[in-house]
What we know:
Layout: H1 3-11, H2 14-26, H3 38-52, H4 71-83, H5 87-112, H6 115-127, H7 131-135, H8 140-161, H9 164-181, H10 184-199, H11 211-233, H12 236-251, H13 265-273, H14 278-293, H15 299-312, H16 330-347, H17 352-379, H18 382-392, H19 394-407, H20 411-437, H21 443-454, E1 461-464, H22 473-482, E2 486-489, H23 493-501, E3 507-510, E4 543-546
Parallel strand pairs: 1-2, 1-3
Antiparallel strand pairs: 3-4
Helix pairs in contact: 1-20, 2-5, 2-20, 3-4, 4-5, 5-6, 5-8, 6-16, 6-20, 8-9, 8-10, 9-10, 9-11, 10-15, 14-15, 14-16, 14-17, 15-16, 17-18, 17-19, 18-20, 19-20, 21-22
Amino acid sequence: MKRNEIIYKTITHPLFVFPLIFIMLLMGNAGVPLIDQDESAYALIGSSMAETGDYINQMYLWTDIHRKPPMHMWFISFFVKLFGNHEFAIRFSTSLFSWGTLLLIYWYGRAMYHERIATSAAIICGTCFLFPVYGKIAFTDGTLLFFETWAAFSLVGLMQWKKYIHIIMFWVAIAFGILVKGPSILIFIGIFGFLTLILNSNRRRLLRTHPWFYLPLVLLPIVYWGYQYWQRDDGETISWMLDWYVFKRGSGDVVVEGQTGPPGYYLLVFAFAFIPYFRYFLPALWEGIKGLFLRRKNPELLMLSLWMVSGWWIYEFIPSKLPSYALASLPAISILMAHEMIQLSDRRIISTGLKTLTVLEILMTLGLTVLAYFFSKDYLGKDAALMVTMTVAFLPLASITSFIQQLRKHFTLSIYFHLIFVGLFWLTASFFIYPKLGKYWNGPKKVAQMISEEYATVPDTIFIDHFKGKPCSVPYYLKKYNDVEEVYVVSGWFDALNRYQSENPFLGVVLPASKDTLSAFIQTEYDYVHSHRLDRKEQMGFYILDNGKLEK
Length: 552
């Protein structure tokens, strides 16, 4: 083996790669403010659980629409207690479980396919555009993906090896997945199991899962939690969850503004997510489709195909759409792409079609680099534009250098170049770019910090205006930095005016763009408020109002 191949093989070794990916998933998480809506809602619920010891209640200001099964909030609460109440702790469980998903891909992939495929698939999945985003933000989706991947590999392992341990692992993963996000994992695994029953010749092995016995058992934890919550509020929360997440979502009655799309939406999402490896994306999809028709010749490929279909295709035909809905198929697609990558290396032949896809990949990554320059120049400033552009330039560099190595018939080196340079993009992006993006939603945090710094005493209640969109980060940061008992939304103009003119200390937070409540008198009655919330090109600030009865 040549010296440079030894170097690149060392750099892409799992003992080197996986710690770097974990660092990448954690990097910058402490300095970037929480993102509204969902992340801030989970932070408010989880941190409140850690503070009060009440692990049932999820009803806090503006969190009602974000109520979900409790496991994700419990994880947040645990790490808030362990590390403290800050962004790093709130995001830690999501990053940890996302990293665990890549370990599952490697662990099971090495046993089921080949170590080279397993390592490449884990890197491809971990460095596509979707995975790190959901791995660095405290949404439920990164945690859910871990349990979906665990359950899917357990089902594949049962069909391949017929070992009892896979049955236990299968149902344990489902039980945890239900506690994270309710029926989502049941939909994915239900479709996966049904298609396996129809198309896999070893379908009798599915009977060993004994769903008539194990399914009621795995439902017991969520049922017990639901019973406890039902006792708390006479069934209001559980009834709402069933109606919102099951009945209305299932029938298509609930489509949130901006969360919809036509059939083909997820094909475009995945095509964009895998732009750094686009030359392998379409061939991998074609292999997956062929696997459905050549199921007797290659049952291992069939199970990957069914996995991909089960986590993806049904969501193309429902009106409500978000990229996260189809994340369950991400590991299967990554393994199929890694299989294509390694097969090319073994065949040592580049087809005309692959050359065409590679040129398209190069053009798209070059286009992203140009767009990154203009975007960063407009929104981050000229000083940051050069750094952003140099970082994104790792993507076309990965495509071009790997293609050159393929043309020179150095296929192993081509794989190493490709994976290393895309990995360098994510490491540098996490270190340099991700923290800079935080200033686009930094307003609530800066306002809360400003109140803490400028007022010697803060009243037990801080009043806030009816913000459009109800950003949960506002009450979270106000409570965190000012230790207030309550953040209260004023009910209207007269309520605001009466409280402002009373003898009691009054402190309020208002957006200048607001058209109701406090905004009617902010033109004449305010202490200057700032924050310079940079989530739009025109700088939007907050007003902090007090009635002169607070010590500064």
